[in-house]
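Why do we bother with holo predictions? Because pocket geometry can differ from the apo form. Keep that in mind while you read this record for nicotinamide-adenine-dinucleotide.
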Amino acid sequence: MFEKIALVGIGLIGSSLARVIRREGLAGHVAISTRSAATLARARELGLGSSYTTDAKEAARDADLVIVSVPVGSSGAVAQEIAPALKQGAILTDVGSTKASVIAQMQPHVPGGVHFIPGHPLAGTEKSGPDAGFADLFDNRWCIFTPLPDTDPEALERLSEFWRRCGANIDTMDPQHHDMTLAIVSHLPHIIAYNIVGTADDLESVTKTEVIKYSASGFRDFTRLAASDPTMWRDVCLHNKDAILEMLARFSEDLAFLQRAIRWGDGDKLFDLFTRTRAVRRSIIEAGQDIDAPDFGRQAVEHPAKS
Ligand SMILES: NC(=O)c1ccc[n+]([C@@H]2O[C@H](COP(=O)([O-])OP(=O)(O)OC[C@H]3O[C@@H](n4cnc5c(N)ncnc54)[C@H](O)[C@@H]3O)[C@@H](O)[C@H]2O)c1
Ligand SMILES: O=C(O)C(=O)C[C@]1(C(=O)O)C=C[C@@H](O)C=C1
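The structure, written out:
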Protein backbone atom coordinates (compact mmCIF):
# COMPACT_ATOMS: atom_id res chain seq x y z
CA MET A 1 0.00 0.00 0.00
CA PHE A 2 2.85 2.40 0.82
CA GLU A 3 6.46 2.62 -0.42
CA LYS A 4 7.75 3.65 2.97
CA ILE A 5 6.05 3.68 6.36
CA ALA A 6 7.75 5.32 9.34
CA LEU A 7 6.83 4.11 12.82
CA VAL A 8 7.80 6.63 15.47
CA GLY A 9 7.51 4.81 18.81
CA ILE A 10 7.81 1.02 18.82
CA GLY A 11 6.00 -0.07 21.98
CA LEU A 12 2.85 -2.18 22.19
CA ILE A 13 1.00 -0.30 19.44
CA GLY A 14 3.96 0.57 17.18
CA SER A 15 5.30 -2.99 17.27
CA SER A 16 1.84 -4.49 16.67
CA LEU A 17 1.62 -2.27 13.60
CA ALA A 18 5.10 -3.36 12.48
CA ARG A 19 4.05 -7.00 12.78
CA VAL A 20 0.77 -6.66 10.91
CA ILE A 21 2.37 -4.46 8.21
CA ARG A 22 4.90 -7.22 7.59
CA ARG A 23 2.31 -10.01 7.66
CA GLU A 24 0.01 -8.20 5.22
CA GLY A 25 2.82 -6.78 3.06
CA LEU A 26 1.55 -3.22 3.44
CA ALA A 27 4.88 -1.41 2.89
CA GLY A 28 8.06 -1.71 0.84
CA HIS A 29 10.14 -0.27 3.66
CA VAL A 30 9.33 0.10 7.37
CA ALA A 31 11.52 2.66 9.13
CA ILE A 32 11.52 2.31 12.89
CA SER A 33 12.41 5.06 15.28
CA THR A 34 12.25 5.38 19.01
CA ARG A 35 13.82 7.60 21.61
CA SER A 36 15.69 5.00 23.62
CA ALA A 37 18.63 3.11 22.13
CA ALA A 38 17.81 0.02 24.21
CA THR A 39 14.23 -0.19 22.87
CA LEU A 40 15.52 0.35 19.35
CA ALA A 41 18.05 -2.46 19.79
CA ARG A 42 15.26 -4.76 20.93
CA ALA A 43 13.13 -3.82 17.91
CA ARG A 44 16.08 -4.69 15.69
CA GLU A 45 16.56 -8.04 17.46
CA LEU A 46 12.90 -8.79 16.90
CA GLY A 47 13.31 -7.89 13.22
CA LEU A 48 10.36 -5.52 13.31
CA GLY A 49 11.39 -3.26 10.42
CA SER A 50 13.72 -2.52 7.52
CA SER A 51 15.75 0.29 9.13
CA TYR A 52 16.29 1.56 12.66
CA THR A 53 17.21 4.96 14.07
CA THR A 54 16.87 7.01 17.23
CA ASP A 55 16.42 10.05 14.95
CA ALA A 56 12.69 10.35 14.26
CA LYS A 57 13.36 12.89 11.51
CA GLU A 58 15.53 10.39 9.68
CA ALA A 59 12.81 7.74 9.85
CA ALA A 60 10.12 10.16 8.65
CA ARG A 61 12.15 11.43 5.68
CA ASP A 62 10.56 10.33 2.38
CA ALA A 63 7.90 8.28 4.17
CA ASP A 64 4.44 8.14 2.57
CA LEU A 65 2.86 7.30 5.90
CA VAL A 66 4.18 8.33 9.31
CA ILE A 67 2.53 6.79 12.38
CA VAL A 68 3.32 8.38 15.73
CA SER A 69 2.82 5.85 18.57
CA VAL A 70 4.22 7.60 21.64
CA PRO A 71 2.61 8.65 24.94
CA VAL A 72 0.17 11.49 24.18
CA GLY A 73 2.20 14.02 26.18
CA SER A 74 5.13 13.56 23.76
CA SER A 75 3.18 13.94 20.53
CA GLY A 76 3.82 17.69 20.14
CA ALA A 77 7.58 17.31 20.60
CA VAL A 78 7.65 14.46 18.07
CA ALA A 79 5.63 16.46 15.51
CA GLN A 80 7.99 19.40 15.91
CA GLU A 81 11.00 17.15 15.46
CA ILE A 82 9.82 15.37 12.30
CA ALA A 83 8.05 18.31 10.62
CA PRO A 84 11.06 19.47 8.52
CA ALA A 85 11.50 15.96 7.08
CA LEU A 86 7.89 15.27 6.10
CA LYS A 87 7.41 14.99 2.36
CA GLN A 88 4.65 16.70 0.43
CA GLY A 89 1.57 14.49 0.11
CA ALA A 90 2.60 12.27 3.04
CA ILE A 91 0.00 11.13 5.56
CA LEU A 92 0.82 11.83 9.19
CA THR A 93 -1.28 10.04 11.79
CA ASP A 94 -1.12 9.01 15.44
CA VAL A 95 -2.67 6.37 17.69
CA GLY A 96 -3.04 8.41 20.89
CA SER A 97 -5.78 7.66 23.41
CA THR A 98 -6.84 11.31 23.58
CA LYS A 99 -7.58 13.40 20.53
CA ALA A 100 -8.23 17.11 21.23
CA SER A 101 -4.93 17.50 23.06
CA VAL A 102 -2.95 15.56 20.44
CA ILE A 103 -4.43 17.76 17.69
CA ALA A 104 -3.61 20.92 19.66
CA GLN A 105 -0.03 19.72 20.14
CA MET A 106 0.69 18.35 16.65
CA GLN A 107 -1.29 20.48 14.20
CA PRO A 108 0.74 23.70 14.59
CA HIS A 109 3.86 21.84 13.40
CA VAL A 110 2.32 20.11 10.37
CA PRO A 111 3.65 21.65 7.13
CA GLY A 112 1.19 22.57 4.34
CA GLY A 113 0.77 19.72 1.84
CA VAL A 114 1.03 17.04 4.55
CA HIS A 115 -2.21 15.22 5.44
CA PHE A 116 -2.55 15.11 9.21
CA ILE A 117 -5.26 12.61 10.24
CA PRO A 118 -5.53 11.92 13.99
CA GLY A 119 -6.49 8.35 14.84
CA HIS A 120 -7.02 5.97 17.73
CA PRO A 121 -7.23 2.17 17.53
CA LEU A 122 -9.42 0.91 20.37
CA ALA A 123 -7.24 -2.08 21.04
CA GLY A 124 -4.58 -2.71 23.61
CA THR A 125 -3.44 -4.58 26.67
CA GLU A 126 -1.82 -3.71 29.98
CA LYS A 127 1.59 -4.55 28.52
CA SER A 128 4.04 -2.19 26.89
CA GLY A 129 7.23 -2.20 24.86
CA PRO A 130 8.22 -3.89 21.57
CA ASP A 131 7.93 -7.43 22.93
CA ALA A 132 4.30 -6.89 23.90
CA GLY A 133 2.94 -6.32 20.39
CA PHE A 134 1.19 -8.90 18.21
CA ALA A 135 -0.13 -8.86 14.66
CA ASP A 136 -3.75 -9.71 15.57
CA LEU A 137 -4.16 -6.87 18.04
CA PHE A 138 -6.40 -4.79 15.78
CA ASP A 139 -8.57 -7.65 14.49
CA ASN A 140 -12.21 -6.62 14.51
CA ARG A 141 -11.43 -3.60 16.72
CA TRP A 142 -12.52 -0.05 16.04
CA CYS A 143 -10.09 2.51 14.75
CA ILE A 144 -11.55 5.98 15.24
CA PHE A 145 -10.43 8.94 13.17
CA THR A 146 -11.09 12.51 14.24
CA PRO A 147 -10.48 14.27 10.91
CA LEU A 148 -9.91 18.02 10.79
CA PRO A 149 -12.33 20.23 8.83
CA ASP A 150 -9.93 20.42 5.85
CA THR A 151 -8.94 16.72 5.82
CA ASP A 152 -8.55 15.43 2.27
CA PRO A 153 -11.17 12.67 1.76
CA GLU A 154 -8.81 10.67 -0.47
CA ALA A 155 -6.08 10.64 2.16
CA LEU A 156 -8.66 9.64 4.78
CA GLU A 157 -9.85 6.78 2.59
CA ARG A 158 -6.25 5.63 2.00
CA LEU A 159 -5.53 5.60 5.72
CA SER A 160 -8.88 3.87 6.41
CA GLU A 161 -7.98 1.15 3.91
CA PHE A 162 -4.60 0.71 5.62
CA TRP A 163 -6.30 0.17 8.99
CA ARG A 164 -8.89 -2.17 7.45
CA ARG A 165 -6.01 -4.25 6.13
CA CYS A 166 -4.60 -4.26 9.68
CA GLY A 167 -7.91 -5.86 10.72
CA ALA A 168 -9.76 -2.85 12.13
CA ASN A 169 -13.22 -1.39 11.53
CA ILE A 170 -13.32 2.35 10.89
CA ASP A 171 -15.38 5.09 12.46
CA THR A 172 -15.04 8.87 12.49
CA MET A 173 -16.14 11.41 15.08
CA ASP A 174 -15.18 14.85 16.28
CA PRO A 175 -12.33 15.04 18.82
CA GLN A 176 -14.45 16.33 21.71
CA HIS A 177 -16.98 13.55 21.26
CA HIS A 178 -14.15 11.03 21.09
CA ASP A 179 -12.61 12.34 24.31
CA MET A 180 -15.90 12.33 26.19
CA THR A 181 -16.79 8.81 25.01
CA LEU A 182 -13.36 7.37 25.77
CA ALA A 183 -13.36 9.05 29.18
CA ILE A 184 -16.24 6.79 30.24
CA VAL A 185 -15.46 3.57 28.35
CA SER A 186 -11.70 3.48 28.78
CA HIS A 187 -10.16 6.19 30.95
CA LEU A 188 -12.50 5.90 33.95
CA PRO A 189 -12.22 2.10 34.15
CA HIS A 190 -8.44 2.46 34.34
CA ILE A 191 -8.63 5.21 36.97
CA ILE A 192 -11.05 3.13 39.04
CA ALA A 193 -8.72 0.14 38.74
CA TYR A 194 -5.68 2.17 39.79
CA ASN A 195 -7.69 3.48 42.72
CA ILE A 196 -9.10 0.19 44.00
CA VAL A 197 -5.75 -1.58 43.75
CA GLY A 198 -4.11 1.40 45.48
CA THR A 199 -6.71 1.24 48.26
CA ALA A 200 -6.06 -2.47 48.73
CA ASP A 201 -2.32 -1.81 48.77
CA ASP A 202 -2.82 0.84 51.45
CA LEU A 203 -4.32 -1.81 53.72
CA GLU A 204 -0.81 -2.91 54.48
CA SER A 205 -1.67 -5.53 57.03
CA VAL A 206 -3.81 -7.29 54.46
CA THR A 207 -2.04 -6.68 51.23
CA LYS A 208 1.09 -8.78 51.54
CA THR A 209 -0.89 -11.84 52.45
CA GLU A 210 -4.65 -12.00 52.00
CA VAL A 211 -5.03 -9.75 48.96
CA ILE A 212 -2.57 -11.80 47.00
CA LYS A 213 -3.55 -15.18 48.40
CA TYR A 214 -7.31 -14.80 48.10
CA SER A 215 -7.62 -12.40 45.18
CA ALA A 216 -10.82 -13.44 43.50
CA SER A 217 -11.20 -12.94 39.78
CA GLY A 218 -13.08 -9.64 40.25
CA PHE A 219 -10.09 -8.07 41.99
CA ARG A 220 -7.69 -9.75 39.58
CA ASP A 221 -9.44 -8.10 36.64
CA PHE A 222 -8.80 -4.74 38.28
CA THR A 223 -5.12 -5.59 38.83
CA ARG A 224 -4.73 -6.27 35.11
CA LEU A 225 -5.89 -2.77 34.22
CA ALA A 226 -3.92 -1.29 37.14
CA ALA A 227 -0.75 -2.85 35.74
CA SER A 228 -1.02 -0.65 32.62
CA ASP A 229 1.85 1.61 31.66
CA PRO A 230 2.24 4.50 34.16
CA THR A 231 3.63 6.98 31.61
CA MET A 232 0.85 6.32 29.12
CA TRP A 233 -1.90 6.67 31.73
CA ARG A 234 -0.39 9.68 33.46
CA ASP A 235 -0.45 11.40 30.07
CA VAL A 236 -4.02 10.28 29.31
CA CYS A 237 -5.22 11.71 32.64
CA LEU A 238 -3.43 15.01 32.14
CA HIS A 239 -4.49 15.33 28.50
CA ASN A 240 -8.16 14.46 28.81
CA LYS A 241 -8.60 16.31 32.06
CA ASP A 242 -11.97 18.01 31.50
CA ALA A 243 -13.80 14.97 30.15
CA ILE A 244 -12.34 12.72 32.85
CA LEU A 245 -13.27 15.14 35.64
CA GLU A 246 -16.81 15.38 34.22
CA MET A 247 -17.16 11.59 34.17
CA LEU A 248 -15.59 11.24 37.63
CA ALA A 249 -18.13 13.70 39.02
CA ARG A 250 -21.00 11.66 37.60
CA PHE A 251 -19.39 8.47 38.83
CA SER A 252 -19.05 9.87 42.37
CA GLU A 253 -22.72 10.92 42.39
CA ASP A 254 -23.81 7.47 41.31
CA LEU A 255 -21.52 5.86 43.87
CA ALA A 256 -23.11 7.99 46.60
CA PHE A 257 -26.52 6.73 45.42
CA LEU A 258 -25.28 3.16 45.73
CA GLN A 259 -23.75 3.84 49.12
CA ARG A 260 -27.06 5.26 50.35
CA ALA A 261 -29.03 2.28 49.04
CA ILE A 262 -26.70 -0.09 50.91
CA ARG A 263 -26.81 2.00 54.09
CA TRP A 264 -30.63 2.08 54.12
CA GLY A 265 -31.04 -1.52 53.05
CA ASP A 266 -32.83 -0.50 49.84
CA GLY A 267 -32.63 -3.86 48.07
CA ASP A 268 -34.97 -2.79 45.27
CA LYS A 269 -32.66 0.02 44.19
CA LEU A 270 -29.68 -2.31 44.23
CA PHE A 271 -31.57 -5.02 42.34
CA ASP A 272 -32.79 -2.54 39.70
CA LEU A 273 -29.32 -1.16 39.08
CA PHE A 274 -27.69 -4.59 38.90
CA THR A 275 -30.39 -5.77 36.48
CA ARG A 276 -29.84 -2.74 34.24
CA THR A 277 -26.06 -3.20 34.21
CA ARG A 278 -26.34 -6.91 33.45
CA ALA A 279 -28.33 -5.94 30.35
CA VAL A 280 -25.47 -3.68 29.24
CA ARG A 281 -23.06 -6.61 29.15
CA ARG A 282 -25.60 -8.72 27.30
CA SER A 283 -26.05 -6.03 24.66
CA ILE A 284 -22.27 -5.80 24.17
CA ILE A 285 -22.18 -9.54 23.53
CA GLU A 286 -25.20 -9.35 21.21
CA ALA A 287 -23.47 -6.56 19.27
CA GLY A 288 -20.89 -9.16 18.26
CA GLN A 289 -18.17 -8.45 20.82
CA ASP A 290 -17.36 -11.85 22.27
CA ILE A 291 -16.20 -10.73 25.69
CA ASP A 292 -15.49 -14.25 26.84
CA ALA A 293 -13.23 -15.12 23.95
CA PRO A 294 -9.73 -15.74 25.32
CA ASP A 295 -8.27 -13.13 22.97
CA PHE A 296 -10.85 -10.43 23.67
CA GLY A 297 -8.74 -7.42 22.92
CA ARG A 298 -5.58 -8.81 24.30
CA GLN A 299 -3.24 -11.72 24.02
CA ALA A 300 -1.40 -13.59 26.71
CA VAL A 301 -3.83 -12.44 29.36
CA GLU A 302 -4.66 -14.84 32.12
CA HIS A 303 -8.24 -16.07 32.27
CA PRO A 304 -8.20 -17.58 35.73
CA ALA A 305 -11.87 -18.44 35.65
CA LYS A 306 -11.30 -20.68 32.67
CA SER A 307 -8.04 -22.33 33.63
N1 LIG B 1 -1.59 0.44 25.34
C1 LIG B 1 -2.81 0.54 24.88
O1 LIG B 1 -3.69 -0.20 25.31
C2 LIG B 1 -3.13 1.59 23.85
C3 LIG B 1 -4.23 1.38 23.02
C4 LIG B 1 -4.51 2.34 22.04
C5 LIG B 1 -3.73 3.49 21.93
N2 LIG B 1 -2.70 3.66 22.78
C6 LIG B 1 -1.88 4.87 22.62
O2 LIG B 1 -0.76 4.50 21.84
C7 LIG B 1 0.37 5.28 22.20
C8 LIG B 1 1.54 4.35 22.48
O3 LIG B 1 1.16 3.47 23.51
P1 LIG B 1 1.88 2.07 23.71
O4 LIG B 1 0.96 1.23 24.51
O5 LIG B 1 2.40 1.55 22.42
O6 LIG B 1 3.10 2.53 24.65
P2 LIG B 1 4.49 1.83 24.94
O7 LIG B 1 4.95 2.37 26.23
O8 LIG B 1 4.41 0.37 24.74
O9 LIG B 1 5.42 2.45 23.79
C9 LIG B 1 5.70 3.82 23.67
C10 LIG B 1 6.86 4.00 22.72
O10 LIG B 1 7.10 5.39 22.55
C11 LIG B 1 8.47 5.66 22.70
N3 LIG B 1 8.61 7.06 23.08
C12 LIG B 1 8.23 7.65 24.22
N4 LIG B 1 8.47 8.96 24.17
C13 LIG B 1 9.01 9.19 22.95
C14 LIG B 1 9.48 10.34 22.29
N5 LIG B 1 9.42 11.54 22.86
N6 LIG B 1 9.99 10.20 21.04
C15 LIG B 1 10.04 9.00 20.43
N7 LIG B 1 9.59 7.87 21.01
C16 LIG B 1 9.09 7.98 22.26
C17 LIG B 1 8.95 4.63 23.71
O11 LIG B 1 10.34 4.44 23.66
C18 LIG B 1 8.17 3.41 23.22
O12 LIG B 1 8.84 2.83 22.13
C19 LIG B 1 -0.06 6.14 23.38
O13 LIG B 1 -0.35 7.43 22.92
C20 LIG B 1 -1.31 5.46 23.89
O14 LIG B 1 -2.17 6.41 24.47
C21 LIG B 1 -2.34 2.72 23.71
O1 LIG C 1 -7.66 -3.86 27.23
C1 LIG C 1 -6.84 -3.09 27.70
O2 LIG C 1 -5.97 -3.47 28.45
C2 LIG C 1 -6.83 -1.69 27.35
O3 LIG C 1 -6.49 -0.95 28.21
C3 LIG C 1 -7.14 -1.21 25.99
C4 LIG C 1 -7.69 0.20 25.88
C5 LIG C 1 -9.08 0.20 26.52
O4 LIG C 1 -9.30 0.89 27.50
O5 LIG C 1 -9.93 -0.48 25.95
C6 LIG C 1 -6.80 1.17 26.55
C7 LIG C 1 -6.49 2.37 26.03
C8 LIG C 1 -6.70 2.66 24.65
O6 LIG C 1 -6.59 3.93 24.25
C9 LIG C 1 -7.52 1.74 23.95
C10 LIG C 1 -7.81 0.53 24.45
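The domain at 177-302 is CATH 1.10.3660.10 (6-phosphogluconate dehydrogenase C-terminal fold).
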